[in-house]
Prior knowledge:
Blueprint: H1 22-31, H2 38-48, H3 56-71, H4 75-83, H5 86-100, H6 102-117, H7 125-135, H8 147-163, H9 180-186
Amino acid sequence: MSNRSAAEPRYALNFVSRALLTRETTLLAEMRKPGESWESVRDRAVSENAVQARTHRSGVRLTREAVRRLIVLSDDEVEFLLDAAPRERRYLMWAAACRAYPFIGDFAEQVLRERYLILASTISPEHLEGFVLSQAMWHPELEDLSDSMKAGIRQTVFRMMREADLVTPDGEIVPALLSGRLADLLTAAGRDDLRFFPTRGA
């Protein structure tokens, strides 16, 4: 019998081999017409191979994943994505990944930011492995992960953090330097998505 409570839905872990997709999400945001649904954008992007994938199958996967990240953004955040400097785009897409995949969001809050707050200077794959073990009590799906799946998750999460300029290739934690506008967006509507970043902001 599962020990998962009703408040702990299964972690979606199908982000393996995915990066931040900053280029792809920006492309789709640029091609969206006023009032158009993301589903419609997805269909057009697939038919036109907007993400410039080498095969149709990979184009479908990449476009669907990019739309999954865009759907969790507000209209104001999508507008910001189109206007922002490269680093802030990457910050926003890190927040989108954390929203779309609570596993990543929980790791960001409970490990990445917590280590920053306690003045730890580095983060390593071992910290993610410890997080998986600690979460398995509430998420039994983590107990069933194969070694290759764990390795893929570890590789992807650390790749995302590096792409977001939050961790160096050597594992050093880089404090997030969010603009006031982005910080306001991440805390709008009662959210506190600054929790996904190594920052001392409220």
